[in-house]
Amino acid sequence: PQGTEEAYRRSLLETLHNAMLNVRLAELTHQADPPFIGASAGYGSLLRTKSAFTLGAAVPDSGVLRGLDAVLTELERVRRHGFTASELERQKTNVLRHYEQAYAERQKSESAEYAEEYARHFLEGEGIPGIGAEYRLVQRLLPQISLADANALGRAWVSDSNRVILLMAPASALPLPAPARLLAAFDSVRRRDVLPYQDAVADAPLVPQPPAPGTIASEQTYPEIGVTEWRLSNGVRVLLKPTDFKDDEILLGAWSPGGASLVEDSVYYDALMAPLVIGSSGLGDFDAIQLNKRLTGKVASLAPLIDDLEEGLQGSGSPKDLETLFQLVYLHFAAPRLDTVAFESYRGRLQSFLANRSRDPGSAFADTLTLVLTQHHPRGRPMTAELVGSLSGEAALDAYRDRFRDASDFTFVLAGAFTLEQIRPLVIEWLGGLPSIGRVEQGRDRGLRPPTGVVERVLHQGLEPQSQTQIVFTGDFEYTRENRHLLNALVAVMDIRLRDVLREDLSGTYGVSVSAQTQQKPVPSYNVSVRFGTAPARLDTLAAEVFRQIDSLKVQGPAPDVVTRVQEQERRERETARRTNGYWLAQLLRGAQIGDRPGAFLAADALTEQLTPARIQNAARRWLNTGNYVRVSLFPEK
Length: 638
Description:
By secondary structure, the protein is an alpha+beta fold. 46% of the residues lie in helices and 17% in strands. It has helices spanning 5-28, 64-81, 85-104, 111-124, 131-141, 147-157, 179-191, 268-281, 288-294, 322-334, 340-354, 361-373, 385-389, 393-403, 420-431, 481-505, 539-556, 560-577, 581-594, 604-609, 613-623, and strands at 38-47, 50-58, 216-222, 227-232, 237-242, 250-257, 300-306, 310-317, 411-416, 454-460, 467-476, 512-519, 525-534, 629-635. Strands 3-4-5-9-6-8-7 form a seven-stranded mixed β-sheet, with helices on both faces. Strand 7 and strand 8 (310-317) form a beta hairpin. Helix 17 (539-556) crosses helix 21 (613-623). The longest helix has 25 residues, at 481-505. It starts with a helix and ends with a strand.
């Protein structure tokens, strides 16, 4: 039953129990040679009238019994010894912080959140008192939940009856353990000595020695978009966009040129994987497990990235935890680390995850397309278990340190609920204190180019009677804002036309996807991609229809009402997007990457009004060259 205070208390208790158990399971993946790739557990709704406790794991093909033993052992550890007081307090803190943040955003909640909640109320009887009442209820009920309550709950969920064991594996993994051996694992764990969990907690400061702060060397404002730019004494550029879109959200992004193009082919994939290596290793004096515990109750997260031509950071935080977010930025520059045990664990799990990837028709399709489009360039290889096995933690750390040892060419963008006065001291201390050696870098052209002419490949893989094809048009591109906008408008027109013809008129597919990408560096270029799935017998017929529609666009142009639909769609999307922090973050970062003045993206408004059928027709003639494309098609084996 739902909708009562007792039911609400029980749901809080279930949330706490599920979170504590899943943290323990996640910690096991950081061990050397972990027993599973990933595991999860939880009590929740199975159907609208039934709930169930579910425990599951993804394991290597040969690791079924070992993985089963590991998850059952953790369950038995909780059954015998329970959780610790410190574990419970951390999860209480996280739950309370979650409701605190939701309450802070109560005036800016999205309509979809209300709609989903009302649907659950109607279908499942969930109470809907409003976030104000819920927040007060959580503040009162959480302190009343004891460790004994949490421990008793888990024991009530697990029994020897009403039990289903489900094992799924690829055919290549046969033979699988017999049911009797799976059942024997339960008895084996019950008879074994299981030690209590040791909750090691580090409460040292995130940054033991803060950096020497910098200064703001110059300031410029862009009043038409409400953006302020600071140039710091260490060369860092900071673009700041205070907003009132959300009351408890600040987004952060950072960009610097160079990326993995500046490392040699032999360590290219080490560099690309370096952010994940750092993420699995922790920061400063904290390994990944300790760092996660240290950030209990903090709404602040940050992740590094290294791409072909750039490196950067992406993160978010609450205004209340903004200093923590800045400290994480500083640590990603000044104190990355390599946890060799965690790295070996990560590499092993990734190898197990990729072991059967080539047998998956969708993966084989994507890999073939990538190889063809990059002409089998060494940097265009798909990720495989063998490639992951060749990765070096030391090489990854070296590549990461090189990319992040100089902040002088970084542009940071912050958008959200802050004022310049509030954020100024944090920027001066944590961004102004970043290491700087004044390098001048640009990404290198490593020669990745798509093929010219018409290239077609056909795969036969999989058992399902379904097929898919992807057609990619490529070429040189004059990289202007007008051309980028016109190409996107062409894609929108094609999407409407192909959906109407292939899906509605011919009933040949559930959906068709049309997309475009442009790049300024290392050479200005574009690609337009058309993708759809259908029955094998109809694939070539529908593909021929795609080319007929392209020819029609070139000869006749689109109907005026279709262009009007595209214009309305663009206006509406921008109207909605400009009320989000994510839009401003993306636009300001993109402007920094291509060398635009902040606010140049507002020209899109005028470009929308200038769209005409004739301009779309001309765009189709320029960028849909039917003498220069790659097509990859997937059919079932038989």
